[in-house]
Design goal:
heterodimer, A: 296 residues, mainly alpha, MetI-like fold, 2 strands, 74% helix, B: 388 residues, alpha+beta, Rossmann fold, OB fold (Dihydrolipoamide Acetyltransferase, E2P), five-stranded antiparallel beta sheet, elongated, disordered C terminus
């Protein structure tokens, strides 16, 4: 799992420096992936981009009249609320996953080898169950007569059932739960490569535990943190299943907006605009990531 | 006052399935101020564990570590006045050479200007000027080693600890670094505690050596004491090469004994303490201290034997001689003259003589490790080759 060693620029450079024969080899190997990307990524993306400048058709679809109206609609603060909520929830999810995932990944790395594999397996096991089923399971836990409320009331912490479901709390719980493994795995692969004798060297030179962590451990596991955060943040921003199921009608995210524009409102051009905005938001952290990995 | 004092240090590790391993067994050592002190032993003898208890990475199961008279108790490593040069250097890969060296001073919250000048000083001391901005992985092994040394030295610790710091270097570089380290130690005057498994390294550099085996200190002394008067068979065997001859005490006068070797040859050997008549003892003879002579040489004294092997090694020649008792003895003779190199050849009957004060008596008698050979573990002649 080499999220951390991805360096596109280097690979492209080396492509142009090799001789023809090597280029041919490279072409053969890259052909399927390139074809795939063109057919199923660049082509649809172009359609979305074109649609965003067209007028909506009466019964869905588009009519071929150029307009900027769809972009002007973004000025409406209703959409801004949804964007900010998405960003806020995605950041919250990323941060919470990091807070839980970092110590956990550290814990797993420092176990004896036979335990390490079992613990890693345990992090992956949730993937064996369908995501929808797992999110529905949270309803059972969070609803007013749910497991958590029963426990809270029987312990006498609260007399009335707490409002745990169909709000942004429920959505963030669902997101954190769903994306935690994507944080743990890249963190694990980075921390596993960390040379633990550096901790002793740091202590030996007079650094206490906190300074050893901030000056040595954190900078050297930084790439794992960035990779994990991206893997959590990007899908979390565009998430629409979790807010749909756990958020109710009040906690819309960008993904829900896109979905409703395409399927319910049948406004494909505006749905395209929302998709493009979402992509732009997601692209930002990726650019930041490449900057960091280029620095070295 | 001693720089480092270890008093009855023991360390028990709990290994797999809760099995307890006694890594250090009741070790007491006094390391003097300004001394180059080596802990010498083969791997697993507890030498690194002892070093780690001084540094504070391990806490002794029992006993106490004193540094300049101060009990360390359970003080963490970052509160101890010692610094370590690690075996794999443990340089911080994300920091430059200068930043690596400055790290310890930054932890002491020294002013920036002072840090800069001290880092500069120590980098020129270890001859790394001009490499300040390199990252560790851009340096050769020897350079990395110097950074590790500089990083520890810059803190001006009272005691500097070394955990086999030269182990990863090639032989030539290692020899250079040995001399350099020794000179540096004399220059800065800091107490060095040096862990090594390389006996030659320990002999070259140390003021005093502690020889360890199975978690215990066997002998502490200067290189000369350790080599010339080993106090037990392990030390004699581990440091340099040794021939072991078994003999019986037939006479004892103050200051010396006469030991009968092979039931035929009485050898008089100096010995301080009293030996009962009839006691079986071991005589240690270093290969370079025995001389080889023709059978009918002078007074016809000396151990009689047959040469079974002659190995020319450039600076000297090794002879393997089978004594009448079938014991094999290794003799090393310096090649002083070019024209008498082939004086002795395989199959020839010879006499071996050793100056009596070059022989060391050990009161212990181990069973020989191989039925017919004298024992030399660190010899370049394999016992197999010597058998014939």
């Amino acid at each position: 799992m080499n999220f951390t060693q991805l360096n596109l620029k280097e690979k492209i450079n080396s492509y142009f420096q090799t001789d023809t024969r090597k280029k041919l080899n490279l072409f053969v190997f890259l052909f399927p992936a390139t074809l795939w990307l063109i057919c199923f990524f660049i082509f649809p993306l172009s359609i979305v981009l074109v649609y965003s400048f067209l007028e909506r058709g009466t019964y869905g679809g588009v009519s071929w009249i150029l307009t900027l109206e769809n972009y002007q609609r973004l000025a409406n603060p209703i959409y801004w609320t949804v964007f900010f909520r998405s960003l806020y929830l995605a950041f919250l999810t990323t941060f919470a996953c990091l807070l839980v995932g970092y110590p956990l990944a550290f814990f797993i790395v420092t176990r004896p080898p036979q335990w390490r594999n079992i613990l890693l397996l345990l992090t992956i096991i949730p993937f064996w169950t369908n995501f929808l089923v797992r999110i529905y399971a949270w309803i059972v836990l969070l609803r007013s007569e749910g497991v958590i409320n029963i426990i809270i009331q029987s312990l006498g912490i609260s007399n009335e059932p707490l409002e745990l479901l169909f709000n942004s709390f429920a959505v963030s719980v669902g997101l954190i739960y769903g994306y935690l493994p994507f944080m743990i795995l890249p963190l694990y692969s980075t921390i596993e490569k960390f040379n633990f004798s550096l901790i002793e060297a740091s202590q030996d030179l007079g650094a206490n535990d906190w300074r050893t962590f901030t000056r040595i451990v954190l900078p050297l596991t930084y790439r794992g943190i960035v990779a994990g955060s991206l893997l959590v943040f990007i899908p979390a921003v565009g998430e629409f299943v979790t807010p749909d199921i756990l958020g109710g009608a009040k906690t819309l995210m960008m993904g829900n907006l896109v979905q409703s524009q395409f399927l319910a409102a049948r406004n494909w051009p505006f749905g395209s605009v929302l998709s493009i905005v979402m992509m732009a938001i997601v692209l930002l952290p990726i650019i930041v990531y490449f900057r960091i990995s280029e620095e070295k | 006052m001693d720089a480092v004092q270890l008093v009855n240090i023991s360390k028990v590790f709990t290994g797999q399935s809760n099995r307890e391993v006694l890594a250090v067994n009741d070790v007491t050592l006094h390391i003097k101020e300004g001394e180059f002190f080596s802990l010498l032993g083969s791997s697993g003898c507890g030498k690194t564990t002892i070093l780690r208890t001084i540094a504070g990475f391990e806490l002794p199961t029992s006993g106490e570590v004193y540094i300049h008279g101060e009990a360390m108790g359970d003080r963490p490593p970052f509160h101890r006045p010692v610094n370590t040069v690690f075996q794999n250097y443990a340089l911080f890969p994300h920091l430059s050479v200068a930043e690596n060296v400055a790290f310890g001073l930054e932890m002491d919250r020294l002013p920036r200007e002072k840090i800069r000048s001290r880092v500069g000083d120590v980098l020129s001391l270890v001859k790394l000027n001009g490499l300040e901005d390199r990252r560790p992985r851009q340096l050769s092994g020897g350079q990395q080693q110097r950074v590790a040394l500089a990083r520890a030295l810059v803190k001006r610790p009272q005691v500097l600890l070394f955990d086999e710091p030269l182990g990863a270097l090639d032989l030539k570089l290692r020899k250079e670094m040995q001399i350099e380290l020794k000179q540096m130690q004399q220059k800065v005057g800091i107490t060095f505690v040096y862990v090594t498994h390389d006996q030659e390294e320990a002999l070259t550099m140390s003021d005093r050596i502690a020889v360890l085996s199975a978690g215990q200190v066997l002998q502490v002394g200067t290189p000369t004491e350790i080599y010339e008067t080993p106090n037990c068979r392990f030390v004699a065997d581990f440091i340099g090469e040794s021939n072991f001859l078994v003999g019986r005490v037939i006479e004892w006068r103050s200051g010396g004994a006469i030991v009968l070797v092979d039931e035929e040859l009485p050898i008089s050997v100096p010995y301080e303490s009293e030996l009962p008549i009839g006691k079986i003892v071991t005589l240690v003879i270093r290969p370079e201290k025995a001389t080889i002579h023709p059978e009918n040489y002078l007074d016809e004294k000396g151990l009689l034997g047959t040469i079974t092997e002659v190995i020319y090694l450039g600076t000297d020649t090794r002879f393997v001689v089978r004594l009448t008792s079938q014991t094999l003895i290794l003799i090393r003779r310096q090649n002083l003259y070019r024209n008498n190199l082939s004086l002795f050849s395989v199959g020839e009957r010879v006499r071996i003589r050793v100056a009596s004060d070059s022989i060391r008596i050990l009161e212990e008698v181990d069973p020989p490790r191989s039925q017919e050979t004298g024992i030399w573990k660190h010899s370049s002649i394999s016992p197999k080759a010597a058998k014939d």
